[in-house]
Amino acid sequence: MARPAPRYVCQSCGAAYPKWSGRCESCGSWNSLTEEADTTTIPGAKASGRGGRLIALEPVQGTSPTPPRLMTGIAEFDRVCGGGLVPGSALLVGGDPGIGKSTLLLQALTALAKTGGPTVYISGEEGIDQTRLRANRLGLEDSKVKLAAETSLRDILTTLDTASPPAVLVVDSIQTLWSDAIEAAPGTVSQVRACAQELIRYAKRRGTALLLIGHVTKDGQIAGPRVVEHMVDAVLYFEGERGHNFRILRAVKNRFGPTDEIGVFEMREAGLTEVANPSALFLGPKEARASGAAVFAGIEGTRPLLVEIQALVAQASYGAPRRAVVGWDSARLAMVLAVLDARADAGISAQDVYLNVAGGLRIGEPAADLAAAGALVSSHLGVVIPPDCVFFGEISLSGTVRPVGQAESRLKEAQKLGFKRALVPPGISGPKGLELTPVPSVGALVALMQTFH
After folding, report:
1. In the chain, what is the straight-line distance between the N-terminal and C-terminal CA atoms, in Å?
2. Residue 273 CB: number of other CB atoms within 10 A?
3. pLDDT, tens digit, 9 for 90 and up, residues 117-172
4. Exposed/middle/buried for residue 316 (C-beta within 10 Å: 0-12, 13-18, 19+)
5. Would strands 168-172 and 33-36 be described as parallel, antiparallel, or unpaired?
6. Which long-range contacts (CB under 8 A, 24 or more apart) does 411-417 make?
7. DSSP 221
8. What is the pTM of this model?
9. Most buried of 123, 141, 243, 375 (most Cβ within 10 A)?
């Protein structure tokens, strides 16, 4: 029998090549190609697709029962999952080391074990004693969660099949598991893909909600092949800055709920506690407001969220002005600065510019353009924006302010938190008691900012 040709797989993106090279052509990473056994062909498989069993083809018309939910009792976690965990679903949770992934899922399992049936936590990185120490530190010593420390996929599935299936199964982490059917080291693309596929098949067959914890790469993406993210039903990212106590659980994919939904937690000595009103946390004290601070009325998923955007415009010390951005897209800042100079003659681009989103939150929607421009102009002119004023709107290259979606939800959240005035794109109506000031262009914004004292 002929020896199969070698196959080299990139450990960053999963691309396969017939020969080794120092750089992956797909993702550009260096020294990431390793030789693995070719698992794409199955010996003895027929070339034709015939010979299988018949499958039922259902019409689009009809009704399907709403999938039941397992409520953890942690409202922020259930919110991100779309209203609780669905039996038979698979979720992938990623985040930086030490951000609190294991802590969050251990707390959720403990809450589920009280009402939702048996739960199992399998750790491939820590021993049982280490997991017990974490549980004691979190005040979960009376938890009914069953623990195991194992990395062999065959032993894990054999153990789970000999007893009644758990309601929820957590595997920490998927990169530590290995299957003896794959000739590759643990953590490689082949092992991660095969182990994830077997666990997901078990979860679908036994009706167990599966939670997989995944490592992340240096650029913040979940390590391993992208196919794992396509296999699972939901992908959650646990984000946060080391210098802040706040943690954000963000859904980037969810087959049972909205995407881009977020849940806000605060890390304390007793573990993670949910934050019911995150807008109040991301806003600074109104009494100590200085120039360069503007409140942005944003939307994260289905949740309106108010956050303070801080800007500092200073005299450039060297020939090339400096740009420093935290929590926002640096390319978006460059565009807003160019539009302010070209369309409103603001004269900011020649100076050093520092922009920060308070609280460690990351903003990705274009609706923050108007708030960022307001903060920049406020710092440049040295005027203080009234503390009861919020901003939202997208700035185009022509200098006009374009409308954005879910304006009513943004304004209602601002009014609920005591704001009296909103600078918005033209043509937007809001609730009674909230004064709306239309801003048609960046030139009108600069003229309006000059009236503030």
Report:
1. 85
2. 14
3. 899 999 998 999 999 999 999 998 888 899 999 999 999 999 999 889 999 999 99
4. middle
5. unpaired
6. 411/297, 411/436, 412/304, 413/279, 413/297, 413/304, 413/305, 413/306, 414/295, 414/297, 414/306, 414/390, 417/279, 417/280, 417/283, 417/306
7. P
8. 0.76
9. 375
User: Which two three-digit tokens encode residue 41?
Assistant: 């062909």
Chain segment 327-367, per-residue pLDDT in tens: 999 999 999 999 999 999 998 989 999 999 987 788 989 99
Highest mean pLDDT among 23-32, 136-145, 200-209: 200-209
Which amino acid is present at 188?
T
- Quick one: pLDDT band at residue 271, thresholds 50, 70, 90? confident
> Which SS3 state, helix, strand or coil, does residue 371 take?
helix
How many other C-beta atoms are found inside a 10 Å radius of the C-beta of residue 2? Answer: 4
Sheet architecture: strand order including 293-300:
323-326, 352-357, 303-314, 293-300, 389-391, 421-424, 435-438
Q: Which residue from 383, 430, 382, 433 is spatially nearest to 408, judged by alpha carbons?
A: 430
Q: 3-state DSSP call for residue 373? A: helix
The rounded distance, in Å, linking the Cα atoms of 373 and 311 is 9
Is pLDDT at 252 greater than 50 in this prediction?
yes
